[in-house]
Design the sequence.
């Protein structure tokens, strides 16, 4: 799998939920070259449900009015097969939120049908080098459903977004220690994009020094870990709306590093497991990864201690339960 197509041929990018707030922050970043590079043209396809097509058409008009040099075309679609025809990269942003009185199982089943259909459409028409990033929640299990529905495409082409959790962890550490996020290395977030996720500083360094020696243990376990996991809820409480711009920024970071690599730097991505670190084979699980040659490599050979193991296991158990619900769709 190569890092990119020719700079003379536009990369075809499909964004679902294109009339929503995350997409509104994401589309201009893609069109400006922040994902595929400053010389790589792109062609955008905006996919929406029929009731939201007109709003997506307004977004397409604004993109056109921006006169972005790399943007070689914008289509608006409500037909999934047409939207994913020839696609090189897909950001699956649109998802049904959890409704009042609904259980998590209800939400999983409702979203499962959406992502099952999108996986089938991607399978039918995507380009050979397609990369799919699932942003819509529950992202890990939606990605699991999508790759299972796209059985002819290698499953490592399907990821879920946990870069937002990674970025949140770096930001909170930086605020605590008066450092730039760029000064930290080897921070990881294990597991599920949910309350069970485990932001881990066991291997991390700040300016080359062991990070665990620079933070208070009580702060790390009692405030940092739960606050990273629940940051989305905190933003809703303060802002009155869910994270949008930060989620879009994380999606840009994820796809850019997937395409261009990380120069050996650790980041977090939720990828289909091949049983690394005791995770059930096939679950889409957050791991420390390195981007290299257009693909993710899970950081292997790490020693897992008695503090880490139960926190990783809690995520395995949660995702195992979600997969049981998702498997009823097949």
Sequence:
């Amino acid at each position: 799998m190569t890092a990119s197509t020719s700079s003379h041929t536009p990369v075809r990018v499909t964004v679902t939920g294109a009339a929503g707030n995350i997409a509104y922050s994401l589309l201009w970043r893609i069109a400006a070259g922040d994902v595929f590079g400053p010389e790589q043209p792109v062609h955008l396809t905006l996919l929406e449900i029929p009731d939201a097509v007109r709003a997506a058409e307004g977004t397409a008009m604004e993109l056109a009015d921006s006169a972005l040099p790399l943007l070689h075309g914008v289509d608006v679609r409500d037909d999934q097969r047409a939207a994913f025809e020839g696609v090189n990269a897909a950001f699956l942003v649109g998802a049904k939120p959890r409704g009042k009185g609904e259980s998590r199982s209800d939400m999983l089943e409702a979203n499962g049908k959406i992502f099952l259909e999108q996986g089938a459409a991607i399978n039918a028409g995507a380009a050979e080098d397609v990369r799919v990033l699932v942003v819509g929640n529950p992202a890990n299990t939606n990605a699991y459903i999508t790759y299972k529905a796209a059985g002819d495409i290698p499953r490592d082409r399907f990821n879920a977004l946990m870069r937002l959790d990674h970025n949140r962890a770096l930001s909170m550490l930086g605020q605590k220690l008066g450092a730039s996020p760029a000064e930290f290395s080897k921070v990881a977030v294990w597991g599920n994009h949910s309350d069970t996720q485990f932001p881990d500083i066991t291997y991390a360094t700040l300016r080359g020094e062991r990070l665990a020696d620079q933070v208070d243990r009580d702060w790390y376990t009692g405030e940092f870990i739960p606050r990273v996991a629940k940051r989305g809820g905190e933003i809703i409480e303060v802002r009155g709306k869910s994270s949008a711009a930060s989620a879009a920024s994380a999606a840009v970071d994820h796809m850019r590093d997937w395409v261009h690599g990380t120069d050996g730097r650790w980041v977090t991505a939720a990828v289909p497991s091949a049983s690394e670190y005791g995770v059930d084979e096939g679950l889409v699980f957050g791991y420390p990864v390195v981007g290299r040659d257009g693909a993710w490599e899970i950081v292997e050979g790490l020693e897992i201690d008695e503090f880490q193991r139960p926190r990783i296991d809690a995520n395995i158990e949660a995702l195992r339960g979600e997969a049981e619900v998702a498997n009823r769709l097949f």
